[in-house]
């Protein structure tokens, strides 16, 4: 599919090895998860959420993050992201070869206390401590900005919380502004339980931009109620250039009852490239990878393209 003239590139951050696997019943060993990352990179993923530095007692699917990273050779053309929930996870990430660290926060106290044991204010304080620690390390003897992996933040439950209910636009904008004030350059807005609609997506993007005009916004949608691709379309129409997706549409959140997978990478690539937005992915290799991971986790991948294939053939 050749891009139409005038269409801007859309960056898709692949989250299958982390968000995609963390809610699956199958627990894959680190070597297989590293192979998963390599397959995705061969399909065109340039930024990929490869691991999560969380306690294996709570998310056994993410055990062995250090082993996964050790099995991946350094790459100048790929950026491997590690998700962290707190300072301890951040310290673990620094001991590996991750290129980026993504700090997860919640828009609500209910989800934050359930997921991390921290209120919203405590999560912002935690992020502030991480930012301050980075600054101190870079300012110390021999320190440099190149010594630290890039830092981003994801706000979960932006469109709704399984414990606190609806989440207001002002509530989200306030948190976005507080995160941006710490110097975090990229902020992701996540519909963790898949309750958003295209119109509320537009409103919250506009509010987030007003609160943090210099930040890069990344959008993260789940397809729990079949609105994921419509929400992605709304985000792109609102000018967002970076979206998360999970190959095969696998995934979910262990602490979000009823949540299903992210929008599927291959479904998103198909929609975008049909419309002329280049993504850098190879659709056939993505479909092949979606079917492969479905076999690995013991159930067919739920994405539409893994079932129906590309068109035209």
What order do the strands of the largest sheet run in, or round the barrel if closed?
A: 1-8-7-6-5-4-3-2
Percent helix, as a range, is 40-55%
Q: Mean pLDDT score, rounded? A: 94
Alpha-beta classification: alpha/beta
Count of helical regions: 12
- State the distance separating the first and last CA atoms: 11 Å
Q: How many individual β-strands?
A: 8
The largest pleated sheet is described as: 8 strands, parallel
* Shape field: globular
> Which range does the strand content fall in?
15-25%
Residue windows where pLDDT falls under 50 for at least 5 positions: none
Give the helices and strands as they follow along the chain. Answer: EHHEHEHEHHEHEHEHEHHH
Please state the CA-atom Rg, rounded to the nearest Å.
18 Å
Please outline the helices and strands.
Layout: E1 11-14, H1 16-20, H2 30-42, E2 47-53, H3 65-70, E3 79-84, H4 87-94, E4 100-106, H5 109-115, H6 120-139, E5 150-156, H7 169-181, E6 186-191, H8 198-211, E7 216-221, H9 228-237, E8 242-245, H10 265-274, H11 283-297, H12 304-308
Parallel strand pairs: 1-8, 2-3, 3-4, 4-5, 5-6, 6-7, 7-8
Characterize the structure shown.
The protein is α/β, with parallel strands linked by helices. It is built from twelve helices and eight strands. It has helices at about 15-20, 30-40, 65-70, 85-95, 110-115, 120-140, 170-180, 200-210, 230-235, 265-275, 285-295, 305-310, and strands at about 10-15, 45-55, 80-85, 100-105, 150-155, 185-190, 215-220, 240-245. It has an eight-stranded parallel beta sheet. α2 (about 30-40) packs antiparallel against α11 and α10 (about 265-275) runs antiparallel to α11 (about 285-295).
């Amino acid at each position: 599919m050749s891009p139409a003239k005038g269409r801007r590139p859309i960056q898709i951050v692949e989250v299958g090895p982390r968000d995609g696997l963390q809610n699956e019943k199958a627990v894959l060993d680190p070597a297989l998860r590293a192979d998963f990352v390599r397959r995705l990179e061969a399909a065109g993923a340039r930024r990929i959420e490869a691991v999560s530095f969380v306690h294996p007692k709570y998310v056994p699917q993410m055990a062995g993050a250090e082993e996964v990273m050790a099995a991946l050779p350094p790459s100048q053309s790929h950026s491997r992201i590690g998700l962290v929930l707190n300072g301890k996870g951040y310290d673990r990430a620094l001991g590996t070869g991750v290129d980026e660290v993504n700090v997860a926060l919640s828009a609500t106290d209910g989800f934050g206390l359930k997921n991390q044991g921290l209120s919203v204010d405590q999560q912002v304080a935690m992020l502030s401590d991480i930012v301050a620690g980075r600054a101190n390390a870079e300012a110390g003897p021999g320190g440099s900005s190149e010594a630290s992996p890039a830092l981003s933040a994801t706000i979960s439950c932006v469109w709704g919380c399984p414990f606190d209910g609806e989440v207001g636009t002002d509530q989200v904008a306030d948190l976005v502004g507080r995160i941006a004030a710490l110097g975090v350059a990229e902020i992701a807005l996540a519909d963790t339980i898949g309750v958003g609609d295209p119109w509320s997506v537009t409103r919250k993007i506009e509010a987030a931009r007003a609160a943090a005009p210099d930040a890069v916004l990344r959008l993260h949608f789940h397809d729990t109620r079949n609105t994921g691709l419509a929400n992605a379309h709304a985000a792109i129409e609102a000018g967002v250039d970076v979206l998360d997706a999970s190959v095969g549409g696998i995934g979910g959140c262990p602490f979000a009852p009823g949540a299903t997978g992210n929008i599927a990478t291959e479904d998103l690539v198909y929609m975008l490239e049909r419309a002329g937005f280049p993504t850098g992915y190879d659709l056939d290799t993505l479909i092949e990878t979606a079917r492969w991971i479905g076999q690995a986790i013991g159930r067919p991948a739920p994405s539409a393209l893994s079932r129906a294939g590309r068109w035209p053939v």
